[in-house]
Each structure stands twice: as C-alpha cells, then as structure tokens.
Design brief:
The chain is an alpha/beta fold and 359 residues long. The chain is built from 13 helices and five strands. The protein has a five-stranded mixed β-sheet with strand order 3-2-1-4-5, sandwiched between helices. Strand 2 (39-48) and strand 3 form a beta hairpin. It is globular. The structure holds zinc ion (ZN).
Length: 359
Amino acid sequence: MQMVLMPNPNQSKRTPTKPTNPNDAWILHREEIDTTQEGTCNVYALIDAFSGFCFGQTASIDQPELEKVLELFSTAKSTLGFLPKELMILKSDPFIEMFHDICRDLNIPVTELTAKELRPYVREFSKSFAQFKLMGATTEDEIDEHSMPLPERLSEIEEQELDAFIPDSYSPCSCSSGKKFKFCCKPIFREIAFAMCAAQDGYLTEALEHMKQAETKVGRTAEVLCRYAICWSFTDMTKTHQYLKETFAVNPNHPRANYLMGIESVGTENYETAIAYYQTAIDHYPKNDRFHLNETYNNLGTAFYSLKRYREAKEVWEQALLLLPSDETVKNNLTEYIYENPLVPKELRGVSPFIKKFL
Ligand SMILES: [Zn+2]
C-alpha cells in the first residue's frame, strides 16, 4: 500500500480527567485517512490516557496486522516500563474482538467506551491528526476548491455532536447493498455530495460531471443511478424516471429510490402508493441510519395524515422524533396536526409517554 506519513501528535498535552498516573490506562484509537490510491485507511494509535502521549501508530487498509499492534504495545511497554491497568477502546470498534484477544494474552483488562466517553482523551490527538490530514492532502493534490479547512470542520462537528449522522466506515451502507459503507459507497461519498449541492444550486452540468466521476470509480450501481435521477429532478422529470427505472432494475429495494417515488406519489395524491414506497425504504435502510430513517418516517406520517389515518401518522411521527430528538419539523407536525388538532379524535391527542421528554 501507499506510504502514510504520520503526524507528531505529542506537541499538545492536555490535563487528564480520569487516570492519574501513566499506565493507569492506554487507549487504542482508530482514525481514518483518505489516500489517493487505496481509498480510506485505518490508523490505529496507542495513546496514554494520562498524558495524551502517543506511543505509536499503525496504518492498514482494513484490519490492522496482529504483529503491528503487538509491536505498538511492546514499544509502549519499553517506553514506560509497564503495561497499563486497563485498555480503553471504542465500543463499536470494527476489530474489537482482535483487540480483546491481544489484551487477554497480555493480561490487560479492556474497558469499552462510547465515542462520547472516549472523546476527552483523544480530542487533542484527533485535532493534530486532522491538521496532518489537511497537510497530507495538500501535498497529494487531493484538496480542491470545494474542501473546507478540515480542523474547523472537525471541531464544529464535535461541538454539535453530529457524529451520529456521519456514516461509520464499517456500518452497513445506506444503499442497502448489504456491503459495509467503506467497501460500497464511501469511495464516491465526496462526488455525490458535490453533485447534490451543484444540482440543488441549479448547476446541472457540474453536477453531472461529479456523477460521471463517481460512475468511473464504481460503475453504474443503484446508488449512482439514483443520484443521477436526483440531479435531473430539478429540470427534467422524464430523465429522472429513466434513471429511477434503471435504479430499480439493479436493486428494487434501493431505499433512496423508493423514498423518491414516495415523494412523487404524494405529489400526485396517490397516498396509498406513497405509503408502500416509504415502507419499502424504511425496511431497507440500515437500522442505525437514523438520519435517513427519520426523514422517511416524517414523510410517511404526512402520507398517513393526508388519508386521515391519524393513529398511524402519530405513531410514525413519534418514531421519527425518537430517531432524531432535535428535529423541529417533526415536533411541529406532532404538535400542530396531532396533539393540538381538534380534528383528531380526543383519545389520540395525548403525547405518548416515551415522547414527553423530547418536547
Ligand atoms: Zn452503498
């Protein structure tokens, strides 16, 4: 694989919150890095939780090599003279089993933490890493005029705790191919994002150019075809329908294509048809894809409401709110069209108990 140069993350030190001694806890932390030839790589860093000191790191395209990880531990041990009392690791780390095995052999207890719990310990490291990624990308000519400065973007995202909405590389891809995001639509994530922005701003030619690049990378997948359909939807619905037809030929369950058909069916007041499309989309989005599921439940609620099926509308809107408690649109829908709507039978107007805390 391509050489990945490593940053020196030891310039900035921070005050620890929990561990009070070196060797109390080490962290095995994963960062991702985009390379031009290999796509995304994993970089695992072994970090001392007390000082934030990084003992070393290893890069791999997918699963890290056992030998390399063992080397990290032995480097750290020879630096400090001891092994730690515990190893902290992200609960959802894709290779956690492998690290459990290593720690079992080394007799180190493992503590699994959520991203939020782990963040204070790895924040400085992540920041220096983001800076490095930015510099690295510049030399590799990877940055173009569309890219925002990465460090600012990262801290902003951190502050707003938006990480739930950025698909994890090892989550199932939201196109419902059954593959992991990293090995499916991630390589064209950037092209699609640019294409969608350009299309929305009315720059169809530019949008299609981005899509052409995506197509060159992965071929005419259902996701690519569906995104072509979206690009055309601002100007030419005949083209949109051609592309959607092609999308369904590749994958009849493609969630976004079904979602789009739902919207279109609502537009022509075919609410039953819309409900069926939305339902198919919901059935095929990955269960942890809260962002897309929220959006689809929200629209499904509107279709139910249009048919005066208030009970179902309430159910799915509340479901949408559960998925994304900060969603103002769905809060307004529930309040205006259900809880405070005199047209809705009184017994349906109560706020469900599990929803109260979100309003
Ligand atoms: Zn995909």
